Amino acid sequence: MGFLDRFFKEPSWGVHPDDHKRPAADAPLRILPTPERVYMPLSQHVGGAARPIVVVGQKVLKGQLLADAQGNISAPIHAPVSGTVFSIGDVTAPHASGLPFRAITIESDGQDRWIDTELVADPFALAPEDIARKAAAAGVVGLGGATFPSAVKFALGKRLKVETLIVNGGECEPYLSSDDRIMRDFADQVVDGVRLVMHAIGAKEALVGIEDNKPEAIAAMRKAAASFSEVKICPVPTRYPMGSDKQLIQTLTGKEVPSNARAAEVGVLVHNVSTCAAVHKAVRLGQPLVERIVTLNGGAIATPGNIYAPLGTLVTDLLAFVGLKGEPARLILGGPMMGTPLAHDRIPLVKGASGILAFNAAEAATPDAGPCIRCGTCADACPMGLLPMEMAAHIRVEDFEGAEGYALGDCISCGCCAYVCPSHIPLVQYFSYAKGELMAAERVKLRTDATKRLAEARTARIEREKQEKAEAAARRKAEKDAAAAAKAAAAKAPAKDSGQAQGETV
Amino acid sequence: MNDNLGSPVAAPYTTTSNNPGRIMATVMVALAPSTLYGFWLYGWPSIYLWLITIASAMLGEAFFLRAMDRQASKALTDGSAILTGWLLAVSLPPWAPWWIGAFGGLFGIVLGKHVFGGLGQNLFNPAMVARVALLISFPVQMTSWVGVAPLFADGSPGPLDGLVILFKGIPAAFDAMTSATTLGFSKTEMSRGVDLLQSAAHAPVLSMIGERAGSMGETAAWLIIAGGLMLIIKRVISWHIPVAMLAGVALPAAALNAYDPAHFLDAQTHLMSGGVMLGAFFIATDYVTSPNSPVGRLVFGFGCGLLTYVIRTWAGYPEGVAFAVMLMNALTPIIDSHFRPRIYGRNRKGLPLQVAD
After folding, report:
1. In this complex, do A413 and B11 lie within 8 Å of one another by their Cβ atoms?
2. Which domains does chain B have, with CATH numbers?
3. Please, what is the Cα angle at A162 between A160 and A167, to 5 degrees?
């Protein structure tokens, strides 16, 4: 496959939904006035929740550490505004369950005063480990939505000697344009961040994959990267899920990540463009991750576009800023293909939130599911080459092992199958349910195995103790016998029988 | 702001505007030209038979859905029963009596589809189940072919004559119009010891245009191909099954014809006659009863073609598409479990790829 083919040939997988990106993507970036209160959740990343180090009533500056990372995989949380710590308590999590989770509430003083930050004139003189350390201290996590602590990934890339950094500017989800906007408006920051990440992991080249429906971003990035030959801007075909790391790696390098391996094991590492910009700020400017660009889009929004907002801002405040045309029929955090439904709008903006979508009734309407007609459209669309209809047929009858036989575990939940299904079967719902059941079964199995091991150990111990007791008793008896024999022998020599008696009893 | 923003279902929150009704409608549009041409060729009796077959298929669907306490109106509008009836109708002799269509439509829907559990659950193509049942039960009516009698042409039956033919049988006045198909004629001649080289001179003319004896909608090969190509371009069907099925017929036909032209018809005759074209583009490509991986589809299609050729050449019946498709339908679950697409990051056996070096 030639170079041109790789970029101009339509991939055989995936779907091509209406992208609904414009006009929101073309609207200039707006800055949200500092909200009165922000709610900074302690768990905005994969891994352990951060541990608060501030107390209620304490004055904090913007960028000040609020909660420290806890455990090997975790990230710290910083104050997104200056003001006073109002409370440390529960807020609704941006999760389908709508369950509460811990957050630090800060009442803004309206002044937005930053902490003193340490500027680094030449970060490339720093050791790679120092870059990772600075990114970790700034709370940088994967901003594409995965929210995996970036420094942990840097260390992995360094250890496995990754040659190629893949920078994900795909942004294949419909409606979203926050990555598009950061590439258009802050291309220099992104490119600098890319070079810093390369330095941190020791990569020799960086391939920036940008879907070809973002010509302005491609042009801006090309200009910013013009003087750095190691940073290559690579337009990729517009095809959902191009922004999925496995598909982007395959498109850009032709490499496939084995199903039980990590991308780093085939010599590549993927980081999002917004993450790179955050690394730039963290390392060069010493600014922790406390703000981000978020796309506000959907039919219910009066002025859709991208907003630069402090983390912890309530969705209510964001919606009030852009205005609503009417009551939204559905609120989504993230994109329409893989996002999370929000139960209400009093939910804080988190690090991984690339967009808040407010759908009107027409957009939110979902047709009723019908019977599967085995058309195979889902299998054609699956970017992983799975057979969604077969897996769903097994899951319908609770045969989760059967579904696993079709490699259910390899499903990336991209939603292509459910999107193209003419019968509108909620296939991702099936798969999420089955994955949950399998995980629960695995946990139960681990527990029963552990119980079984303990029970067996107990039986063995009782058996051993019994034997030891018997042996001890026998020994005592033998000693007694021996003593008696010795006595007898002493009484009437020669004592020839004693050894024999002892041998018999043992 | 209201607190009830719909149920917390899993993503995606957007979906295609496609639906089964639209797919069926596209297939019907693709099928319409050859069917309309069939109406023109065989006149009023064929139009009535077509209507009766579809009506009886819809009746069977409605009756069964009601019996199972499901909403009949919704399922009827998805068009699958209409399509089953339509496909059966175009595979029938155009002047067959009314009860052939009525019985076939009911049989296909009820025993071919609903006893398996309805849409998406049937193992066999319902239209072919009905056609085979009719062929075995009523061999005389199912092999009585008529010559071409275009609508409005002199000597063709008018609207009233059509009703008479449908309900009372073919009157003496039109008896002269019965004719034989190419495949039937060569088989009969071969069985009397007249080989193909001798009988070819008298054989019914075979044309791409379709002006010959045959089933209602199977003779106009070029219109069927056009409809099939439209389905492929519209991505309703993939190219695999049609291409493989045509190859399955053409390759053995060409090879054996080259070896002994006196006993084996040539590939072109095989492709242009009987139900091969309709079968390849419209029957074997039925979603429910065909495999869903590309390689599986190739195997399935080739099997359909090969079995059609075997049945036509060595079995008792002059035509074998319906039998071949049903036999391969039975193999579809096995084909599906053996020919799965390769999964990203795994090899063909489903094992994880090895990391290089």
Report:
1. yes
2. 20-338 (1.10.3430)
3. 135
